[in-house]
Amino acid sequence: MLCMIAACDKNGVIGKDGGIPWNIPEDLARFKELTSGHALIMGRVTYESIAERLKHPLLQRFSVVVSESFAARPEELPFFDPALVKVAATAEEALTVATEHSEGKDIFVAGGESIYKAFLPITERIYLTRINSAFEGDSFFPELDKNAWHSVKSEACTDKAGKISFSFDILDFSGSRAKEQDKATDK
Question: Looking at residue 85, what is its pLDDT?
Fold first, then answer.
């Protein structure tokens, strides 16, 4: 199954200046728990943000980075490790590579904005952390058709510091793919 995993604030913000504008350890732990052992698809900026913070690519996962400019020279990506990372020039190629490395398990789309938009028309499930605060940002999660996505589970949470409330949501697609694809190509 093709799944998305994301966190956004109440205005749909997912990032600012190539990073995440909040620090919610519980969300990072959920990301790790859900994606470990799976193939992930992400854009170059998302990959670089994660690799720079960790000082290595994501472990226990196979990451496919969508980057036309690095496809011919993947070794120039920061912390590139061919055992853990492959670069694809297009979203279609990324899905093919991720499928080859998925071992039949779910594939996760992990951002950023243009990657989410590219894969939304074929995504079946979304693991979404909804933050009940507003942050400044420059990248956004795509707007979802409320008639096409239904909630499977929603768990209200607060971070350990008691400062940020959020929910862990699981959404399944139940709409018409034709409508979803038309919406994606209109924007």
Answer: 98
